Give the backbone structure.
Amino acid sequence: MNTAHVVTVSDGVFHGKREDKSGAALVDVLSRGGFEVGAPEVVPDEAGRISEAVLTAVARGVDLVVTTGGTGLGPRDVTPQTLSALFAYEVPGFGEAMRRAGVAGTPMAALSRSIAGVRDRTLIISVPGSMSGATESLKAVMPVVGHAIQLLHGDTSHS
């Protein structure tokens, strides 16, 4: 069974001012998709804390890390640039697919800076912080996530 870790990036959730709806919803999507996943980790919108959470999950050998939040244009939205610095390489098709799915429902999705990339053998995906944006984005790429993880583990057969 593949493993996943969810990181909610939100000052409001971290400081107890808001409930973490998107993190919980992502855990549900991943569990239904056959992933073993625990409760979401919550960090503030700070590059160091985001990096620490992601790098710890990668060091544990999880197959997939999904971050939710910090993908917009606000001054504290630092998730994409933080993750980009951690990637060995980016997987641009994931961001494209997530934005395409989002724009079908709202033109505001074009403002999302959601990205995906790889570090070691872990796929890392960032999605928006709203519950609908997060789940819609993850569902848009779930059909290829399993194959991406197989490839990262060295199974390059295409049957």
